[in-house]
Amino acid sequence: MKIKEMIDAARHFEDRSLVEKFTDEEKIAILYLKLNNTLAVLFSKTAQKMKDTDILASYCDVLCAFCRVGNHQKWTYLMLLSDEETDRLRQKWVSHSFANLFMILQQQLNKSFFERQNEPFLHAWHILLKFGLVELGYTPAQIEEKYFEKFTD
């Protein structure tokens, strides 16, 4: 997957009002809040079995929100994956409960935020990538196409 390019697109798509109005601590809290919100919307759509195109668009919203947090925290170098690592994620088992998966993602993101640690953030990132590739069944090309359609000029 073209994760570096996705991160770059998210950087250019950032909300400029965050730069002007808030302290650095408040900015990161807002970015995590937006990430949690987009994640909740995605899992709500999967639970409601909405159209595949709606789910893919929501999945890309979550990817962008992750990239924005990673950009702000300067953790993007940790988010990069080789093709081999992406293939390993695609070979993982299918989770039986999307609700449990959502709760694990929330737990990891909250731990990352409150403890200011990158390891739980990275774990959540890998879970999210696996979710898109395995549970939702998207190919890297499908994800990239929709992502760049949404987040590039």
Task: Describe the SSE topology.
Layout: H1 3-13, H2 17-21, H3 24-47, H4 52-73, H5 76-79, H6 83-90, H7 98-115, H8 118-135, H9 140-151
Globally, the shape reads: globular
Helix run count: 9
Report the order of strands and helices: HHHHHHHHH
Share in helix = over 70%
Q: Radius of gyration in whole Å, from Cα?
A: 15 Å
Largest sheet: none
How many β-strands, per DSSP?
Answer: 0
Q: First CA to last CA: what distance?
A: 20 Å
Low-confidence region ranges: none
Give the overall pLDDT as a whole number. Answer: 91
Structural class comes to mainly alpha
User: What proportion strand?
Assistant: under 5%
Question: How many independent structural domains?
Answer: 1
Protein name: dUTPase
In words, what does this structure look like?
The mean pLDDT is 91. The protein is 80% helix and 0% strand. The chain is mostly helical. α1 runs parallel beside α9 and α4 packs across α9. The chain is built from nine helices and no strands. The relative contact order is 0.17. It has one domain. It comes from Liquorilactobacillus aquaticus DSM 21051. This is dUTPase.
